[in-house]
């Protein structure tokens, strides 16, 4: 009888360990190791995502997905920009306006209403003309 008790206990421990190993892991660090303080050309940006500060990354991360494709990986290039430059501030305003419910992972630039030669007014900053 003790063998059956030990076998059931062992089986229970194995099942619990397997279920625990399937749990989602939390990112240990920021996705952007470095950020650029130089703006990207608006016409080269396909979409972007913004990640708010969290417990393991204290920075707001803005990740641009560019229209150009990396020849080695055959994937679209990604670039991190600083949230403090004018482009970062504008993208944060667009993100907050469009992604109110927080369900979108990325936003297309066309959703922000940016055309190729627009002038953008950012609150509490200067007007910037886009090329």
Automatic annotation (TrEMBL):
<feature type="domain" description="Chemokine interleukin-8-like">
    <location>
        <begin position="29"/>
        <end position="84"/>
    </location>
</feature>
<dbReference type="InterPro" id="IPR001811">
    <property type="entry name" value="Chemokine_IL8-like_dom"/>
</dbReference>
<dbReference type="GO" id="GO:0008009">
    <property type="term" value="F:chemokine activity"/>
</dbReference>
<keyword id="KW-0202">Cytokine</keyword>
<protein>
    <recommendedName>
        <fullName>Chemokine interleukin-8-like domain-containing protein</fullName>
    </recommendedName>
</protein>
<dbReference type="InterPro" id="IPR036048">
    <property type="entry name" value="Interleukin_8-like_sf"/>
</dbReference>
<feature type="signal peptide">
    <location>
        <begin position="1"/>
        <end position="23"/>
    </location>
</feature>
<dbReference type="Pfam" id="PF00048">
    <property type="entry name" value="IL8"/>
</dbReference>
<dbReference type="GO" id="GO:0006955">
    <property type="term" value="P:immune response"/>
</dbReference>
<keyword id="KW-0732">Signal</keyword>
<dbReference type="GO" id="GO:0005615">
    <property type="term" value="C:extracellular space"/>
</dbReference>
């Amino acid at each position: 009888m003790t063998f059956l008790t030990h076998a059931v206990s062992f089986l229970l421990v194995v099942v619990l360990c397997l279920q625990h190993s399937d749990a989602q892991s939390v990112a240990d660090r920021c996705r952007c190791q470095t950020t650029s303080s130089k703006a990207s050309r608006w016409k080269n940006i396909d979409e972007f995502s913004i990640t708010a500060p969290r417990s393991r990354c204290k920075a707001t991360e803005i990740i641009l997905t560019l229209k150009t494709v990396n020849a080695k990986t055959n994937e679209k290039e990604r670039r991190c920009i600083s949230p403090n430059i004018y482009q970062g501030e504008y993208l944060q305003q667009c993100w907050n306006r469009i992604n109110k419910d927080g369900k979108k992972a990325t936003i297309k630039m066309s959703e922000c209403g940016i055309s190729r030669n627009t002038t953008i007014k950012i609150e509490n900053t200067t007007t910037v003309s886009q090329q």
